Prior knowledge:
This protein is of the alpha+beta class. Helices cover 46% and strands 14% of the residues.
Amino acid sequence: MTTASPADHGRTDRVADYTERFAAFLDAEVAPLEEELAAADVGTAFNPRLDEAGRMHGAVWEARREVQRRSARAGLYNPHVGAAVGGGGFTRAEMQHVEEFVYRRAGLGLGLAALAWTEGANPAIEHCSERARKEWLEPLMAGEITAAFANTEMAVGTDVLAMETTARRDGDDWILDGSKAWITNAHFADVVQVVAVTDPGAGTRSLSMFLVDATSPGFTRGRDIPTMLNDGLTGELHLDGVRVPADNVVGEVGDGFALAMAWINWRRLCRGGMCAGWGTWLLERALDRAQQRTSGGRPIGELQSVQHMLADMDADVYAARAASLQAQVELDALPGGAFGMPLHPDAPRLTSLVKVINDEAFFRVADRAVQVHGGTGLRLGSPEEKLFRLARNLKIPAGTVEIQRNAIARGLLRRGTGR
């Protein structure tokens, strides 16, 4: 009798089928598009040229969009979306293996666009109305349009309940006013998941989520907000009397906080596979560098100092990957899973563990990868330099590492007191 190892949790037959088809898709569909993009000399998917407004070059954006459309047609774009709305219905443990494979194999290439990221469907939008499903969710899943999640405001970071964007009822519609900032895909989104105050002072029931058509009167895209990622995707959004039909309320009025947390927790949990995939890719590149680069006539991999850096990279990837997989298996076993409404009391701690462990381990991995590559690793646009900046960035979006520690401690204290 054989017993499955913890690393096999979630490595199901459909994961094996998905990764096999994804690898073939990269070769047959993505590689030619990457060649075309390289010939256009407009940058790459993760190091794009920017236009005069500081936004991602249109040709790079369109190459990403083409990958998304082709991926959707190939049945690869939405494994994380619930089966009830037409997605793959993969568990979080299954998605850990899928995301790890995608990030390791695609590296920093166009292939990453083949798995829906923040511009695609997500656990929150699955709660939309039947009419909104036809108008917005199905086109999102088909790769025909893209979305943005508009929660953050310029003066309001982690304190979601302090947001100032409001929505007031007007007959069968809602009128939205306010501004959002630090929004990924602000410049290109066709539909925006806007979180706004509908019942001031009602605590976690004070917020609601709306699907806002980006062509609506009163909806405008603000300035680009350059970040250390330098990808031309982050910016401001403004809503001035934007009229939204009642059918575009996601879930029920008052569900906004829970839905926003479902979206945020989804991004936190994606850290497990993403950091394991990219971390392994960086380690493989570092191993190759250590064996090929010579100093004093010998490969630098023979130097103990380099060996220790490689060992530390391996330890961080291994430990973070194992912790993430264990946490996601536990989340899958909870009533309601990782994104239940209401959320199981054990879920916030487990989700925060995944984020903080990966944020910090991956930063160390990326830092050592740069060091092993030396001057080559410092070159702007190199995978090591890009992922080092991205690793530092990860410690802030979707809740800072400090906020994750607060959530972990609250979970421990609640469990300790039995409440």
